[in-house]
Amino acid sequence: MGKYLAVDPRSLGRVNFYFLIPVLVFNLLVNNGLPLKDILVTMGFATAVMTTIGLIALVAGWLMYLDRPVLMAAVLTSTCVNAGNYGLPLVSFAFGKEALAHASLYFITTSILSNTLGVLIASMGHMNFKDAALGLFKVPTVYMVILAVFLNQLHIQMPLPIGRTINLIASGTIPLMLVLLGLELQRVKWSNSVRAIGLGTVMRLILGPVVSLLLSIPFGLKGAARQSNVVESSMPTAVMTIVLATEYGLEPALVTATVFISTLLSPLTLTPLLVYLGR
Q1: End-to-end CA distance of the chain
Q2: Is residue 81 left, alpha or beta, with left meaning phi > 0 and alpha meaning psi from -120 to 50?
Q3: Given this model, what pLDDT does residue 40 score?
């Protein structure tokens, strides 16, 4: 479709970024039934994993003398995981409903971080820290998270017509993200920044499992919580990074190539990880 109909990926990316993703995050937050302790542990774990891998990627990219936009693109692809349209079905099939509840919360956390920290990283490819930080206040997901927490704390139930509308909108997010991935894949350029593509892929598929397994110990993760959180942390690069790269002009071809390669190679690392966690 991208090749023959000249569809603009940036327009679809903006629909996803400014409308569908905020609704999806809001919908997941208001419908999650985990205890507060489990919620805080999972959110803390996801944040710790994302931050640790991001810092390692930043140092590694700096040592590789990558240009600033390329470096920020590598950090972005290293930190943002495909915990939604890939991670959630995988956890559900492998470990069942209990693990899926934890995985959903992990996805929510990474979605929030991708729409805050990810925006900051993407913006810093061409902006200074101050301007990039101020740009966070233009991200609608931030306000949807605040609204969802407010409604949950006051135990306010969504009216049925509104709840159905939100569910309908949220269900379109992942399909549109996959369409966007397809549109970007036919524009992939493989000749430049091979080191950055390799860095993002290694960070996601190799460092992701290692860092998450190590951090699961101090966080006290066990059973379904450990299985789901470690698997989610080991997913390939998120399709969401293409949305961010397209929106902020941060090496979209490089980011898309990393998404493609890390997804293609992910069964080689995820399969033994599932066997290990399932013992």
Answers
A1: 44
A2: beta
A3: 86
Helix (H) or strand (E) holding 167: helix 160-170
CA distances from 266 to 74, 132, 237, 258 (A): 17, 32, 10, 12
Q: What count of Cα atoms within 13 Å lies in the side-chain half-sphere of residue 63?
A: 7
Predicted local confidence at residue 188, as pLDDT: 67
CB atoms within 10 A of CB 220: 10
DSSP class of residue 34? Answer: -
Question: What is the distance between the alpha carbons of residues 78 and 60, in angstroms, rounded to a whole number?
Answer: 11
Residue 84: what pLDDT?
81
Q: What are 247's two structure tokens?
A: 């929106």
Cα separation, 131 vs 170, whole angstroms = 30
Q: Is the pTM of this model over 0.90?
A: no
- The answer to whether 87 touches 107, Cβ cutoff 8 Å, is yes
- Mean pLDDT by runs of 10 across the 279 residues of the chain is 82 85 83 75 92 94 89 91 86 87 84 75 65 68 82 86 93 82 70 83 96 96 94 92 81 87 94 94
Q: Pick from 212, 202, 198, 199: which is nearest to 50 by CA?
A: 212
Nearest to 234 by CA among 257, 265, 279, 278: 265
For each of the domains in the chain, give its residue range(s) and CATH number, in order of start: 2-277 (1.20.1530.20)
**Cα dist from 25 to 3, 52, 79, 127, 218, whole Å:** 31, 23, 18, 27, 28
